[in-house]
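WARN retry 2 of 3 for item q-0093 after timeout on previous attempt; input resubmitted unchanged.
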Amino acid sequence: MRRRSVLERQTPVPYETIVHEAALRILVSDRRAARAQLLEILGAIERGHATVRVIPFAREGFAGAGIEMMYVGGPLPRLDTVLRDAPHGTAFIDAESQLARFRALLNKLEKAALHPAESRNFIHRMSKEL
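OK item q-0093 returned
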């Protein structure tokens, strides 16, 4: 809940994410819960502080990009950090040489992802399918 509070405060922190269609289609619980999750994502988009971009199954050209990472950036790129969850714990990556590799990967994902409006429509259609 603490993480969520950052997104729900008076002046929420802008949040951008790229997610693969597979992650949106996994039924962790049941169809009702999956639909509620998709509607929550749509609600965050509509509130205006979250940008969600989807990489559909049909997209090609992003081989090697199947890793989970959180790229935290701001006005001073030298302070950027990548967070990676691993079985041994969370790794914080901030060495410039490593960040350059993750920035290149992020650029590749951005090129493969749908535009935010297309992604919103994609998620909306998925919610109707459930």
